[in-house]
Each structure stands twice: as structure tokens, then as C-alpha cells.
Amino acid sequence: MSSDSSVSRRTLLAGGVAAVGTSVLGAESSAATAFDEAPWIDAHSHIWTPDTSRFKLQPGMTVEDLAPKSFTADELMAIARPAGVGRVVLIQHTLFHGYDTSYLTDAWQRHPELFRVVGMVDDLRPNAGRAMRQLLQQGVTGFRIVPRTGITDWLQTDGMTEMWKTAAETGQSICCLINPVNLPEVSAACGRHPDTPVVIDHFGRVGIDGQIRDGDVNQLCALSKHTNVRIKISAYYALGNKQPPHHELIPMIRRLYEAFGADRLMWASDCPYQLDGNNNYAASIALIRDAIDFVTDEERRKLLRTTAEKTFFFDA
Questions:
Q1: Domain region containing 155
Q2: pTM over 0.85
Q3: Tens of pLDDT along 216-254?
Q4: How does DSSP classify residue 271?
């Protein structure tokens, strides 16, 4: 989930990910059979490297601030592949790297068959749309947006308006990291830009305080009237009981399924933050792969692969 304005839970991972000694991104990743063996797509994970000589941290950050110290593409895939996940959407992490997406685009350049990128651009600086088009050539098929502290109309700045208009032309998704209180204003933005593909991260954080309120779920489901909106059913460690097996989230997932259909929902882990105490990668994917009983096999495939594939895994 990795809110860019709050780092209170980043103590969760001190020492929580073991180093991976050998690469898992070798010849196997290019084999046609790899996606049969690991067919699923994780629609949301973060990666970073302690190699700050090449990939600079933003001012004020040091390698000591990284928690865990390392979570590279290799380390991510070593966890994902045993769970049947062969491809991942990598999400820009402004806490560590600001608006510099170079570490993520480097992973895409080395393994375009495995990764797509959700980047960030600064909507308060000029030429946001041009930056989006340039980044599309580097595997960036979506852009994360977050509410701006102190800016009431953060969704109506000139740069943000340019971003939504550009996304309608390029097919890059506007990916909203928001709280339930922001759902009405995001809905209004979707109404102003009906052709823009929009993704709501992590259920719109419904249940982040431990309470899954009907009113919040109703507002989230109401976004289904905007036909280009999709929802990530993700970040289980941060919602509801915040402990596996996460079954308290199933009623909300069912409500969303009834409102959006499987074509507009996608599973994601939010690693490495999903690796928190008792929380783990296997429990995250098991909720969708094994626990929900109201979808067909084909619909389950959409939740675990097809929706994310159509949303993010396209070429410029």
C-alpha cells in the first residue's frame, strides 16, 4: 500500500526478507512454458535495491531507511513464482525514489516479458502529459496518484487534468491510492473523464482502521457506474483483521464482484508489505485462488490474471 505521506508501519519488515543468492530471472523467464507453470499476475508490488550508487534515493533518504534493506526483482520473484505468479506490475515508491522510476524501468528493460510499471509524475510541474507518453515507451502503463496535502482540489490541478486527458488517449491507467473519504471526489473525476482508465488501489483502503463499513463499501461499489474503473483486491495485511486467512474480507470481495464483475477486479499482493509477521504471500493469493466460492474457474482466472493483463500488459 505504501502511503507516500505516512511511514508508520514501515518498521514491519526489519529483517523480514531473506536475501536471494541466485537469480530467478534467467533463461526460465523467457521460455514460452514459464507462464503455464506460473500463470498468475501480481498487479501491485514494490521493489528497490541497496545499490544507491546507480539508483539514487531522494534527498534526505539513506540506505538505512530502506525496510527491508533489499527487495529486488529477484527477491520478489523468488517469493512469487512458488505461488504460481509469473508476472508482476511494479509500483513506483516515492518515499525512497521520489518521481524517479529508473529502477523499475530498468527491471522492465531487462525483462519486459515479466514486468510492467506504474510510475509517477509530478502534476504540479509542466508537461505531465509529455512525460507520460515518454514513459510509455519504457513499460510504464499506469500512473499512481495520491491526494496532495494542503490542496483541496488535488484532482483538478492543471497537471492532473492533463494526466487524465492523456491517459484517455494512451490507455495508461490512473491508479488512485486513496482512502474512503476520497471516493466521492474520485467518482466526480471519473465523470469528468469517462474515457480514462482508472484503477482503485487496495479496495480504496476500506477497512484500514479494522472496520469494514457498509457505507464505504457502498461508495466503492458505486464506482462501477463508471465503465472504465477497475479495483485492486489487495493489501490484505492492512485491512480488516490484518491477519491471515483474511476471510473477513470475502463479503466485501463478493459485493465488488456483484457490482463490477470479474472483468474489472484484479488480485495483488502489495509486497513486500504483505510480508508482515503472520502475513505472507501464500496466504494473500490463497484467498482468491482457494477460499472464495462464488466465482467460476474462468472468473477466478480473470481475478488472478486476465484483468491485470488487459489493464497493464500492453505495448506502446
A1: 40-312
A2: yes
A3: 999 999 999 999 999 999 999 999 999 999 999 999 999
A4: B
